[in-house]
User: Fold these one by one.
Assistant:
Number 1:
Amino acid sequence: MTSIKMVDLYRQYEHVEAEIDDAIKRVIQSSAFIKGPEVKDFESELADYLNVKHVITCANGTDALQISLMCLGLQPGDEVITPDFTFIATVEVIALLGLKPVLADVNPDDYTMNLSALKKAISPKTKAIIPVHLFGQCANMTEIQHIAEQNNISIIEDTAQALGADYVFADGKTTKAGTIGDLGTTSFFPSKNLGCFGDGGAVYTNNDKYAELVRSIANHGMKKQYYYQTIGVNSRLDAIQAAILRIKLRYLDHYNQKRRIAADFYDFAFESIDEISTPFRNSHSRHIFHQYTLKIANQKRNELQNYLKEKGIPGMIYYPSPLHAQPAYKQYAFDDTQYPVTNQLCHQVISIPMHTELTEEELEFITQTIINFFI
Ligand SMILES: *Cc1c(COP(=O)(O)O)cnc(C)c1O
């Protein structure tokens, strides 16, 4: 057995090697490295896949969040609510734009934004909510949208970990994650469910006005050549990445299905171990397992992580510290008592290998090793 990785990008590449190599060569031959047809075609292919009106690519998922926030035209001091248990990017862009980050605790089962914490966090200054579809599963958009409408608040969905996940409405109808809010954002960081060979990101929206603004802001705020209507940034996906993504997009559903199969294997194997909680699957989404995250009882998480390391199995802690406790954000004086769930999760969670290339032999070895630790 070759070494077990959290994410095995090389083995994934080997299945599509000829297609990808041809695509890269095509871009080099065209020498259209910036913008050009590959980027345009990828944007329209992703828009078709998501069934959304506009996709605007940019340099990474953090930029996608920043540009989306910039297009809402908020004023300094306006408040934006995002979860406490997530990657730093959401709170970072809120703070960078001179807005005030307000953090909401998450649910103990699916780890997405908790609705009563969200309601409590709303003030007359709240202008936007950035829910995060964490680990491949959607936040409760039906309720979040309802709360946002009542309070005249915009929504930006961070879909960096959930590109391709279906949101399931009460009547059984579905839509792709990121297409419910005013804007959706994603990342093509190599280890994401749709990853390129470097950095990339995108914003999606059904709103024509936002689409035009996002495109302009990502291009220095330019309206027409060398005339600027807003202060913008320089953020673009390059053509080689777009050409790679066009190929990998065709396999995205297949990739997500492979993750689900591995997740089912894990779920079944850990069923009888009381100290392990396997990922909860909420009823309003179809999980695509960007991460397969266990919750470990009785303070055994760190011990398990070390044990796995000795056996050659990586286990990562997403996330080891709540955002409200990060020194960089101490100026916002978050109240630690408001985040009991996040505080506990940071001590209990561990993500185990999850990717598209896990073999039955590897899954057997990983699950048996973890079971041996507990019995
Ligand atoms: C990866 C990630 C981002 C940032 O994406 P980059 O492309 O690395 O900038 C934002 N939010 C979440 C939840 C992420 O997982």
Note: The chain is about 40% helix and 15% strand.
Number 2:
Amino acid sequence: MAPPCSNSSPQSIFLLLVTIFAAVSHGDNSNSNPNAPLYTYKYICDPQRFEQLGLNMAQFGFCNKSLPYAVRAKRLVDSMTLAEKVGQTGNGATGVQRLGIPQYNWWSEALHGVSDVGGGSKFSNIVPGATSFPTPITSAAAFNETLWKTIGEAVSTEARAMHNLGVAGLTFWSPNINVVRDPRWGRILETPGEDPFVVGRYAVNYVRGLQDVTGFETTDDLNTRPLKVSACCKHYAAYDVDAWYAPGNFFIDRYHYSANVTEQDMVETFLRPFEMCVKDGDVSSVMCSYNSVNGIPTCTDARLLRGTVRGDWNLHGYIVADCDSIEVIVDQQKYLADTPEDAVAQVLKGGLDLDCMSFYQTYLENATRHGLVKEADIDKALINNYIVLMRVGLFDGQPAYDSLNQNNICSAEHVELATDAARQGVVLLKNENNVLPLNTTAHKNIAAVGPHANATHVMLGNYAGTPCSYSSPLDGLSRYAKVSYLPGCLDVACLNLTYIFPAVRISKTADATIIFAGLDLSVEAESNDRSNLNLPGYQNLFIRQVASAAKGPVVLVILSAGGVNIDEFKSSSDIDAILWVGYPGEQGGNAIADVIYGKYNPGGRLPVTWYTADYVMQLPMTSMQLRPNDDLGFPGRTYKFYNGSTVYPFGFGLSYTNFIYTVVSTQRSVEKELGLGRHCHQLQYNTSAYIPPCQAAIVEDLSCDDDDVAIDVLVTNTGTVDGSHVVVLYATAPEGIIGAPIKQVIGFQRVFVAAGKSEVASFKLQSCRSLSIVTGSAYVALPAGEHTISVGDGDGAVQFPFQVYFKSQKSF
Ligand SMILES: *[C@@H]1O[C@H](CO)[C@@H](O)[C@H](O)[C@H]1NC(C)=O
Ligand SMILES: *[C@@H]1O[C@H](CO)[C@@H](O)[C@H](O)[C@H]1NC(C)=O
Ligand SMILES: *[C@@H]1O[C@H](CO)[C@@H](O)[C@H](O)[C@H]1NC(C)=O
Ligand SMILES: *[C@@H]1O[C@H](CO)[C@@H](O)[C@H](O)[C@H]1NC(C)=O
Ligand SMILES: *[C@@H]1O[C@H](CO)[C@@H](O)[C@H](O)[C@H]1NC(C)=O
Ligand SMILES: *[C@@H]1O[C@H](CO)[C@@H](O)[C@H](O)[C@H]1NC(C)=O
Ligand SMILES: *[C@@H]1O[C@H](CO)[C@@H](O)[C@H](O)[C@H]1NC(C)=O
Ligand SMILES: *[C@@H]1O[C@H](CO)[C@@H](O)[C@H](O)[C@H]1NC(C)=O
Ligand SMILES: *[C@@H]1O[C@H](CO)[C@@H](O)[C@H](O)[C@H]1NC(C)=O
């Protein structure tokens, strides 16, 4: 979705539309009072409400609770004229007064807390703010599935409470689950990182936290499953170029970009989190993206929408456009030289149920009258949409949440969860001589310097609402020490040397110096990709000068989403410790201080590879392939395919204690039966490899329902402080299979282990899912032979072989 402020086309047009829309949608109540509620009703099918409108509710079958939602939705749609139907096809649904259907703005956001982006929810006197959790890249670094779900539950509780107070909708277009393919991408902060499986697990947990009503996690007919709020996985698919200035003046933005993607990369990387979100998370909405895939704008691609999402994955919900993406198809992509009527007809037929902005509302009526599309296709789309509004209680209410109110928003419990999430997401990158944690006796006069030392809104990233309150790094550190503060750089651009010297001076006398550096939305954001991986302006010079002059230990704290080139500080003896904190949300300062002073032992891991600076000189942002391209000299992308040097690898993160692994499970093989008449599948091997007689099986040909792989890892904390540790399990396919990933994450668990104690992390896996690879021709295949399982990576990793055999009922 377009950012809340920008001046480049088409967002400016779009902003204007938002403004007009906002005025219209609030017009009902009082367009001059910013504190008026957005919704004057709690739910639609209330007989008193109908009476006040001069209507008799009993006449309207769509309010008959004894009928199934699908029947009620059809009754509603069947009672509308074509013009009335078309009025409901955009996010600013006009409502139908004669039927007692009010206006509804479908567009609310809840990426890491209830936001007011989109206008379907707002902050005012009624609800001044909501808990702003860490940005997803920070929460992702916690590698804690319970945390992701718990945050989702807290956010949906605040959303329902706001809805009860008339200031929030019930349809939220979050989370953003695009895989981070390139370190320059501006929207890394919104995502859970570069591994498709981790991103998929984040999606499933966050969506379940937002959507699930306790006791209704599954139902016989999932189209009737009640929802706490409706979530949306976006942006589908292969969307991760925003606005990139390449060397030589080449510029490409998301409105004009066609991603050239192989089917292998689609299945393995770009679609996988969406598949998990729909199948395992049972999300109630998917949003298509601005870009094209192989020349076809995703929102008009019937194969991707109707075929894959609704057909193959069986979505229970609606497919929505990114904002103004039909306009983008016509005016920017100029796809097939379509007129607006052609375009709305195509996207509707392709499976798009709801538009964001007004292209459907403006052109669908004429497109239907001119015979370009069937009116019945509009009916189907509206029925998909209304069923979700019924499931979420907009028609009948959701009594389980009636009692939620202001006390459930910014509650002490939620603010503590935001603090804990930030603590869990902190990644310790360097800690020479165990300089951290600092000590309140030895380090009671400290210097806090750098452009982010007093960060507030920067910690929220984007798609934020108004937070409950802020704890800046200065606030947090002041709870432990007397803090002298000078920014050294006025902002992240850091273009004025004048401010550096005073900051250097205060570090000369401090017991310890903490430098807060990094990026913000001026460098990495929606519609803003990076062109290099360096810290901006004079930040390096500033850090260097402070570090060399400082009396006490020096701790560098980086706020950023994507990796930054800090190779120099990684090896510099002047920098004793480095922490990466992402954009840690409203309580970031408390969390950082708790880690620095040892109240919390850090256990986060990098969710993206930190490439060396020269990486981005080796390949353009527009090369979509994950595998290296030796002909063009492109290195691979992500830890799965990039074998070159890094500043810090994916999954890196230290602790104040030490952990060792012992694999205690004894299973070292699995035997799968190939069904009658099924064939062994051939893979491509390099010449020196051992090739088993039956090389692989297509996963669809196997029975894969049970967890047939059990791996138990004993994690022992050999140090003197308690700590949480992330156990990451990787699999590597048998040697010699061409194109197989270097390794891939198949499971992860964050476990708390007290000092001197041990805990078992148990993994129950399906060999078909966890040990399979995606072949060059896009089959998901399970290779026979000796796979390698690695527990953790780097020095402490433990590896063991794991055999896959096939038993055939019939010879091949
Ligand atoms: C609601 O639908 C049921 C089932 O079709 C029907 O028996 C009942 O009469 C309807 N109620 C009203 C008020 O129309
Ligand atoms: C995971 O997150 C949950 C929810 O915040 C928390 O209670 C738990 O302690 C975390 N687990 C670990 C091992 O840190
Ligand atoms: C994608 O492929 C098309 C057709 O081969 C080509 O014209 C276009 O330049 C390619 N785009 C990129 C970004 O590689
Ligand atoms: C719809 O069609 C009518 C007559 O064909 C035309 O006057 C009108 O301008 C069209 N509306 C739009 C939005 O194109
Ligand atoms: C903190 O520093 C003081 C003074 O240097 C020292 O006596 C004490 O042992 C230290 N405490 C810890 C926990 O290291
Ligand atoms: C820190 O930032 C807050 C909010 O912008 C501001 O009110 C406060 O004065 C700043 N503190 C210092 C010491 O500059
Ligand atoms: C740097 O800041 C100083 C003090 O505010 C100001 O006088 C000077 O003009 C600035 N220099 C630049 C290059 O902006
Ligand atoms: C790393 O990948 C590149 C690109 O495919 C390849 O040429 C090189 O041989 C690989 N290096 C190692 C050590 O595997
Ligand atoms: C080919 O496979 C062998 C092991 O069978 C391995 O040592 C070698 O690195 C592989 N070569 C390539 C180019 O992948």
Note: Residues 145-164 form the longest helix (20 residues).
